[in-house]
Amino acid sequence: MRKENRNDCDMNRRGFLKTAAVTGAALCVPTVLSKTMATEKAANSSSGTSVTVGSGMAAIRNHRTLGSGRASMEVSAMGFGCMGLNYHRSQHPDKKQAIALVHEAVERGVTLFDTAESYGPYKNELLMGEALKGYGDRVFVTSKFGHKFVNGVQVKSEEDSSPANIRKVCEESLRRLGVETLGMFYQHRADPDMPVEVVAETVRELIREGKVLHFGLCEVNADTIRRAHAIQPVTAVQSEYHLMHRTPEESVLPLCAELGIGFVPYSPINRGFLGGAITEYTQFDATNDNRQTLPRFTPEAIRANLRIVEVLHAFGRTRGYTAAQVALAWLMNKHPWIVPIPGTTKLSHLEENLRAADIHFTAEEMRNLEEAVAAIPVTGSRYNAEQEAKVQK
Ligand SMILES: NC(=O)c1ccc[n+]([C@@H]2O[C@H](COP(=O)([O-])OP(=O)(O)OC[C@H]3O[C@@H](n4cnc5c(N)ncnc54)[C@H](OP(=O)(O)O)[C@@H]3O)[C@@H](O)[C@H]2O)c1
Predict the structure, then answer these.
(1) Where is the NADP-dependent oxidoreductase domain positioned along the sequence (predicted)?
(2) Residue 89: φ, ψ to 5°
(3) CA of 209 to the centre of ligand 1 (A)
(4) Which end of the chain is more exposed for a tag (fewer CB within 10 A), N or C?
(5) Of all atoms in ligand 1, which is nearest to the CA of residue 276?
(6) Domain layout of the chain by residue ranges
(7) Which are the catalytic amino acids?
């Protein structure tokens, strides 16, 4: 769907929300409306009409819409990827500091927080449940199902998107997060033994039951998206997308545009690499970092790929932006229905990242940046063979 049509959808959605709120036709509408109003407080602050966010403070002042029609979801233009607060990104702050950072993000207008059953496993959801206690009417928390666990240990050779497991994960995620409804429930990886139609039907039932607001899919191909969307409209596809991994542009993003589905790029700074703080000497915590398993994060690959980071530095230097800001702003300038979810453990990085939402690149700037990056071959694949086998081609 093109932008103009999408705006029409937004208008239709607003109309729907009004009608539904009056008639009580939609279970979750009041929650959606209040979340929208809460962020408008942050949005208004730039004109000095609200005390929620100071006018010079780094904050998200714009919303974006993921999905369309009844499946649409209005969220802050940038979300927060929660995984690294206590999982897979090496050293992390203690619980009190992590919670304080999440509160900063909420106060600065972020309304989309992304977690998953598998982050920890479980401990990231538990942290977010504690962090977002009392904020449930202001933000959406999204989670994911589909990995297989036996006694708390992931069975990496298999996935489990059986209806029984989707329902079990949903109940457990709701309990750990301390909410009545998940903002979005994503399938984490496709399950070769479970047709996506069955998955979509199960999530459809959970939406009808008021346990889930919206349906999302991760790392799936265009055929799967189309089949799922025919059963239960998909609000967003969440897949890896950044200047060093542009595969979604081949068929997934065009299909999202055609069907009016939003896109949430995960690892939008390429797991920190495009921020410029990682070098061949960086030591990843052997007990808590999956980057050491990724071919793109060997010392040799890092040394070769730093040329790409240097392009971002050079591009940003003449404009007053950091490399991380260039990486995030590039994504956000690609389409108005893209909502990246960078993760961080630091207030300084949160502020830096949120400011990227205000950056506008001209079409020529976008082209120049893309050409300069594309001129440098990327060394090392993004996933090892086991992880690569799980993403749909
Ligand atoms: N659906 C999926 O399969 C999937 C897979 C992976 C991730 N995800 C989601 O995506 C989220 C983000 O992904 P990610 O953590 O892999 O990657 P990311 O957001 O690209 O990068 C996070 C890393 O970048 C660093 N960083 C953040 N801002 C920075 C800045 N301004 N300058 C320099 N470094 C910066 C962070 O370190 P500091 O703490 O030092 O800032 C952190 O180590 C996750 O939290 C998760 O919710 C989903």
Answers:
(1) 78-372
(2) -125, 45
(3) 33
(4) C
(5) 33
(6) 77-388
(7) 119
